[in-house]
Design goal:
The protein is mainly beta. The protein has three domains: about 5-30 and about 365-655, Kelch-type beta propeller (Neuraminidase, 6 Propeller); about 55-350, Neuraminidase (6 Propeller), CATH 2.120.10.80; about 675-765, Immunoglobulin-like (Sandwich).
Length: about 775
């Protein structure tokens, strides 16, 4: 057997040599719209941070976290779902968000079902007010209250006053100017600011204190904080009926003065519970309780592992779980730890580990798109823990990773295997690969993708292909078969095989017409659904290739070299390759050129005369790498790149967003018989209705239908006699049931007497 390409050798080479470049740097000045935009996707948990804000959303039983200071100022929104399996996810919001900031306050407005964010520092003090709607798709809106407004500030506190339907703000600081003023924001009708002029007090100037709303006594209770020179350990109440400030002096030993702590009101037990803070020495990890019926401070001694002390974290009361949730803050360093303090009985601490984090770093894995559930499926590969046999799913909407843990007997751990999505049977099909003992395989496995994913080994009839890894391959939906090319086992291979998946699975070796590509392994491969051809690029047989080939899958199988104009990418193996439906092109990223990892991006246009073009997307591209995978997400019009090796194993996922189509060029027909012509849809793209015209030279039986990008029937527009001359039909963007389909790329097709013509149309909602 020819051994695997040396990872160690590539690491050494990568340390000595620069990554591949597609063209001189000066070319980056000419960024084209179709080049797209790279961005690194954010996955749970949220980055370690401090001075962020949070609320508990009781309607959806979740915690929402906003902004704060991580490696930089943030303005992101994270959701911690508390229903069933706890899951972190980054919330996609509409509207213009607040600017990045720290030290803002947040409250939940239950009457209008929204989150309100006020003030903060970014880096100067801010006084703006924002609302995030929580029902439906979350949308940011900047509010412009009348009255006031209060001076800009950060490090203040805010509570919701349900009796008067208002937000009450106290203290904070504007730069180095500390405050002890109180303000009310009336929320009914047009929001309006007003200063609260209270009898008694007020407390000393302070920032980064804690405040809770005591619903039994209709008051705000404030503890601790700093004026920049002193730490406070005093306790104050602002009675809203009056209003009146009063210093409280409970019995018992109070907590030492501190700053950056957090408190919640435990309504079931009528007490304030306080955790953490900075007392000027080691940040305490102590927890304190103050019952209000018989006020007396006591330090709690919860069971479980006592958390490390921290300050500038967030804390919310999870009413459904009867617990206090604590996230982030500064321990010895900023942390992303999530803690829960059970409030029942003697209380107990526990560290929580919600689902949603990325799959472990890896290279040599396989990935495919699950279009039914809009997710990327990843199986196997090689990482720090050796060879993997785990299966992960990345939800493309919520950006949450889930370890699928399918039932059934798992395939052996492996890398360099092939995995495709079988759209006919809604499952993944895995073939071959290299295991931890350097043995190559030719086994076939299926992964069902329903509510209970399960592995099943197939035992096809017929003579199987020789064992191999690094094979190219695609699923051919028209033939309901897996088609593979090349790979390496005992020798480098250049054979073509088909695994029929209809009925009893059966292997057969194919003998396509035309001059075949040279034998190779670790080539990039994808399928062009418009022409039903497999497209391959690059690979290695010990030397390197940068040629591109097509294998027709409909009718007579035939190899054809793509004679493309333009300068091709450098020769390489293990590039990530996808077919971009929006632009009818192959797009590839990265690979290894024998001496260095590659970080360039290329397009091979397939409409008209093929041509190679280097792409220079905006944004920050992935590091140069190989052994990564890529899928095309047709709904998002983007390529997603996951994992790989750039000197270390990677677990990052990058998005190359191609964006909306501004115009769709007419495409050559799949088959264009003179007696039957299909015209371009108008308008294209369309929102409400597209007109599709076709010409028939003589009356004939046939049909006109719309299909999705996976070849599934969406809507039959006409079936029966096609009259002579010009005829038009209309598609209103619905499926066979009359249900509106999602935005995206679709294909409309005319078929008659064995001939067909196919074109593309884009629906925009």
């Amino acid at each position: 057997m020819i051994g695997r390409v040396s990872i160690a050798g590539r690491l050494i080479a990568a340390a000595l040599l620069a990554s591949c470049l597609a063209a001189p740097a000066a070319a980056h000045a000419a960024v084209q719209t179709d080049d797209g935009v790279w961005s690194l996707l954010s996955f749970p948990p949220p980055a370690a941070r401090a001075q962020h804000a949070a609320i508990y959303d009781p309607v959806r039983n979740r915690m929402l976290v906003f902004g704060g200071l991580a490696a930089s100022l943030k303005n992101d929104i994270w959701e911690l779902s508390l229903n069933g399996t706890m899951t972190w996810k980054l919330v996609a919001t509409g509207g213009t968000p607040p600017s990045p900031r720290r030290g803002a306050s947040a409250i939940y407005d239950p009457v209008r079902d929204r989150m309100l964010i006020y003030g903060g520092a970014g880096p100067g003090a801010l006084g703006d007010l924002w609302a995030l709607s929580l029902s439906g798709s979350p949308i940011w809106t900047q509010l412009a209250p009348t009255g006031g407004p209060p001076p800009s500030r950060s490090g203040h506190s805010a509570v919701y006053d349900p009796v008067r339907d208002r937000m009450v703000v106290f203290g904070g600081q504007t730069g180095l100017t500390f405050r002890n003023d109180a303000w009310a924001l009336q929320l009914a009708g047009t929001p309006a600011w007003s200063s609260i002029v209270a009898a008694g007090g007020p407390p000393d100037l302070r920032s980064r204190h804690s405040a809770i709303y005591d619903s039994v006594r209709d008051r705000m209770v404030v503890f601790g904080g700093t004026d920049g020179a002193n730490l406070w350990g005093d306790l104050w109440s602002l009675s809203f009926a009056g209003p009146t400030w009063a210093e409280l002096t409970p019995a018992g030993t109070p907590p030492p003065p501190r700053v950056g702590h957090k408190a919640i009101y435990d309504s079931l037990r009528d007490r304030m519970v306080l955790f953490g803070g900075d007392d000027g020495s080691e940040p305490p990890g102590t927890t304190w309780a103050l019952p209000f019926a018989s006020p007396s401070w006591s330090e709690l001694a919860p069971s479980g592992n006592t958390p490390m002390g921290r300050y500038d974290h967030v804390a919310v009361l999870d009413t459904a779980g009867d617990r206090m949730l604590v996230f982030g803050g500064v321990a010895e360093l900023p942390t992303q730890e999530l803690l829960a303090l059970s409030l029942q009985g003697s209380t107990s601490w526990s560290a929580l580990a919600p689902a949603g984090g990325p799959a472990p770093p890896r290279t040599g894995h396989a990935a495919a798109h699950d279009p039914v559930r809009e997710r990327m499926i990843v199986f196997g590969g090689h990482g720090n823990g050796g060879i993997f046999q785990d299966t992960w799913a990345l939800n493309l909407g919520t950006l949450v990773w889930i370890d699928l843990a399918p039932s059934g007997t798992k395939p052996a751990a492996r890398e360099g295997h092939l995995m495709v999505y079988d759209s006919t049977h809604d499952r993944m099909v895995v073939f071959g690969g290299l295991d931890a003992g350097n043995d190559v395989h030719n086994d076939v496995w299926t992964l069902s993708l329903g509510a209970s994913p399960a592995w099943t080994e197939l035992n096809p009839i017929g003579t199987p292909p020789p064992p191999r890894y690094g094979a190219a391959g695609v699923y051919d939906p028209a033939g309901d078969r897996l088609v593979i090319f090349g790979g390496v086992g005992d020798v480098v291979l250049g054979d073509v095989w088909a695994l029929s998946l209809s009925g009893t699975p059966a292997w057969s070796e194919l003998s396509p017409a035309g001059t075949p590509p040279a034998p190779r392994f670790l080539a990039g491969s994808t399928r062009n659904p418009l022409t039903n051809r497999m497209v391959i690029f690059g690979g290695t047989d010990g030397s390197l290739f940068h040629d591109a080939w097509t294998l027709s899958l409909s009718g007579s199988l035939a190899w054809a070299l793509i004679a493309a104009s333009g300068t091709p990418p450098s020769a390489r193996y293990e590039p990530a390759v996808i077919y971009d439906l929006t632009h009818d092109r192959l797009v590839l990223f990265g690979g290894f050129d024998g001496t260095a990892f590659c970080g360039d991006t290329w397009a091979l246009s397939l409409t008209g005369a093929p041509a190679w073009t280097p792409l220079f997307p905006m944004g920050i591209s992935p590091t140069s790498r190989d052994g990564h995978t890529a899928i095309y997400d047709p709904m998002g019009k983007r390529m997603l790149v996951y994992g790989g090796l750039d000197g270390v194993f990677k677990d990052d996922t990058y998005e190359l967003l191609f964006g909306d189509v501004t115009a769709v060029a007419e495409e050559p027909a799949t088959i264009a018989p003179a007696a039957m012509t299909l015209h371009a849809a108008y308008p294209n793209p369309f929102r409400a209705q597209a007109t599709i015209a076709f010409d028939v030279g003589r009356p004939r039986e046939g049909r006109v239908a719309v299909f999705d990008v996976h070849g599934r029937l969406v809507r039959e527009l006409k079936n029966g006699l096609l009259p002579v001359g010009s005829t038009s039909v209309r598609w209103d963007g619905t499926d066979q049931r009359g249900v509106l389909v999602a935005s995206g790329t679709y294909f409309y097709r005319i078929e008659s007497e064995g001939a067909s013509d196919t074109r593309k149309v884009v629906l925009l909602r």
